Each structure stands twice: as structure tokens, then as C-alpha cells.
Amino acid sequence: MTVRLNILAGGALALSVLAFGIPSPGAEPRVHEIVIDKLAFGPAPEALHVNNTVEWVNADIFRHTVTATNGSFDVDLPAGAKGRTILKRASVVDYFCRFHPGMKGRLEVAP
Amino acid sequence: MFRFGTWLFVSILCFAAASAMAQGHKPPTDAQIADIAYTAGQIDIEQAIDALKKAHNKAVHSYAEEMIRDHLAVNNKILTLLDKLNVEMEDNDTSKTMYQEAHLKRDELRALSGTAFDKAYAENEVAYHEAVNGALESTLIPSAQNPQLKSLLETGLKLFKEHLKHAEHLVDELK
Fold first, then answer.
1. What domain range includes position A38?
2. What does the alpha-carbon distance between residue B147 and residue B76 come to, in Å, rounded to a whole number?
3. Whole-number mean pLDDT of chain B?
4. Do residue B162 and residue A102 have CB atoms under 8 angstroms apart?
């Protein structure tokens, strides 16, 4: 249920801006957490953008996967594990668990 | 023969769950419910251990691994909960009948090999999960008194429903 929003702030961003110039519009790096529990994906965060990261937290007692129907990611999450997906393209991506096909979710990634 | 065996098993499981209710008009106790739920998981685990040795198809093999992993997780939860509540599982006629029938089914599947085994295993998984879902919904969950046990059974039902979908996909793939 918990969707926490962590902002990767400070030095790293400033450094990368210095080194590589201004990132593309709306591309502020953020890490969004989606918790998986009781055979369900937590709600997808609103306002996802390119260059954001989703951290998947498997709080369930079962192993799950987060598998994009378009093949863009496939994260294996044993019980208690965490995994990350970097959002590299503006798109709408549906995902499911390969082991428990009724578990479904959707990420809407804006530029 | 196989189909007959499957349906026989399903009807016995349903009958067993119903008759447990009917015995002296007493619903099963939490100790009995825990035993039935644990046995249901154990049956599927034992069947999956066989399937790991015999499965021909990669998807069937991976499904069997999933069954062991998921049912073991639920069964460990049941054991932890019973420890916490200081309750012992209580053997009962439903569990015994389920286990006996599962042995017969396992022997039947053991006689098969290759694709015939894969198909029969997947079909049996559909039938088995349907039967257990029915027993959970109609008898076990409504009869459970302890809220933590009830909640665990509800998680179990959700899991069994997912396994049912997965097994149905498997049957379709193997056609």
C-alpha cells in the first residue's frame, strides 16, 4: 500500500548536471517504491517520468516477478527481495507476475 | 481412466469437506482446519516433487517449482501461527481421506511419462486447485474462529486461485 517517494537530491545531481549539462525536460531522477504484498502489486505512483526508477519491494511470503508484457523488463523477486527498473522511455507499460498471472499492474511514464 | 480418476478425487474431496461439516452437525475446529489446509498444501508439494523428476516440458517443471515454493511458504506460516497460538494440528477424517486419495492419484500419474505425464499433471492441478478452493470457500474459511487463521486461509485461497489460473494456462499450452 505504501508508496514512498524518495528524491535523490544533492551532490550527485548537481555533479551530473555539471558534467553532462542539463538533463532533458522533466527528467529529474527519483526513486518510487512499489510494495508487493498478499499476492498484489501496490498502487502505481502518479507522475512517473523518464529517468525515474521504480524500486519493487517484495514484502510477501511468496516469490514473484514483475514482468512487462512488452518485454521491456523482467525482475525476479524472491520473498523479501528488492529490485529496480529504470524508466527509460515515455510509455504505458502493463506488467504481471509470471508465477501468479492474476497479479497485474500498469506504469504510465510521462516524458 | 485418468479423467474418471480426477473427478473421483475431486468429488471425494468435496464430499470429505462437506461430511466433516455434517458430522454431528459440528463445523471443523481451528485445529482441524489448520490440519486440512496444511495437508492440502503438502499434497501439492509431494505431487510437485514427483513432477520435478518426471516433467518433460520446461513450463511444467517451472510450475512444479512454484508449487513447492508457494505451498511451503503457506505451510510454514501455518506452523508459525499454531506455535504462536499454542495449538496442535488435529488429525481428522477429511485430511486422512484427502491424503489417501492423493496417494492413489500419485500412483496413477507415476505410471505415465513424457508429454502424457505433463498433460495429466497439469489437468490434475486444475482439478485439485478447484476442489481445494471450493473447500476453502464453502467450509474452511467460514468455520475458522481465530482471525489470524482466517486471514491466512484467505491468503491461501488467493494463492490457490492464482495457481488455478496458472495451471489452466499450462493445460492450454500443452494442447
1. 5-110
2. 18
3. 88
4. yes
- CATH number of the structural domain spanning residue A103: 2.60.40.420
Contact B159 A63 (CB under 8 A): no
DSSP result, B78-131: HHHHHHHHT------HHHHHHHHHHHHHHHHHHT--HHHHHHHHHHHHHHHHHH
Judge whether A62 is closer than 8 Å to chain B, CB to CB: yes
Residue boundaries of the structural domains of chain B: 2-23+30-174
* Confidence (pLDDT) at B97: 93
Shortest distance between the Cα of A98 and any Cα of chain B, in A, equals 9
Q: What is the pLDDT of residue A27?
A: 64
Q: Looking at the 3D structure of chain A, how many domains does it have?
A: 1
Q: What global pTM score does this model have?
A: 0.78
> What does the alpha-carbon distance between residue B172 and residue B175 come to, in Å, rounded to a whole number?
5
Please tell me which of the candidates B66, B73, B165 has its beta carbon nearest to residue A61.
B73
Which residue is closest to B60 within chain A, CA to CA? A99
B73: which chain A residues are within 8 Å (Cβ-Cβ)? 61-62, 79
How close A5 gets to chain B, by Cα (Å)? 28
Gyration radius of chain B's alpha carbons:
16
The set of residues, in sequence order, having a beta carbon less than 8 Å from that of A102 and lying 6+ positions away, is A39, B161, B162, B165
Overall CATH class of domain B2-23+30-174: mainly alpha
Q: What per-residue confidence (pLDDT) applies to A25?
A: 53
Q: In angstroms, what separates the C-alpha of B60 from chain A's closest C-alpha?
A: 12
- Compare CB distances from B165 to A62, A79, A101 and report the shortest one's residue: A101
- Whether B95 contacts B36, CB under 8 Å: yes
